[in-house]
Write a structure and sequence with these properties.
Distance between the termini: 26 Å
Structural class: alpha/beta
Largest sheet: 4 strands, mixed
Helix content: 55-70%
Strand order of the largest sheet: 1-2-3-4
Shape: elongated
Number of helices: 7
Order of helices and strands: EHEEHEHHHHH
Number of strands: 4
Strand content: 5-15%
Oligomer: single chain
Amino acid sequence: SLIVSIMAGIPPSQIEKDMNCAAIVAMTNTSLQVGEALTSLYQSPRCKEDHLQWAHSAFSPFGMTVKLNETDFSAATALGGSHPAFAIWILNEISKIVETKLPNQNGMDWTLNIFKGASKLIKKNADVAALLSQITTPGGCTAEGHKSLQEEEVALKIKKAFDKYKKKAEGLGK
């Protein structure tokens, strides 16, 4: 028999031990509602390949599925579960800036379109450094904005936020 769980913080090995059967934990996120979820699948030692294939087929219609090791459980719970909210927050903040600078425009439409295009560029050409180089004119507006982001250590602040929600994820289920 097999148990499939969507409970955060309880790894499949614990479910297998407590319930005395094979277990898969599927950590998905709210983007499941629009068919763009990222669902991480973790299997207990007793799981068979057909169990994992079944779980993949159950969740893949709602987005991307990935198989991860249980050692990645907390990090993926934090990333997969929290990043949609984090992304929505960033998109909203940028859209507010657009609406402030261009008051006759819908800032969210602008922002979503720009992020959609940027996502497609990255998907087409995974070399982010090369893309940034193509987009950034030395001494231009983009270079100045990028310099400001680096001076403000935005990347470090994002990493610190991740570290905090990963630590929180490590405490779930205890």
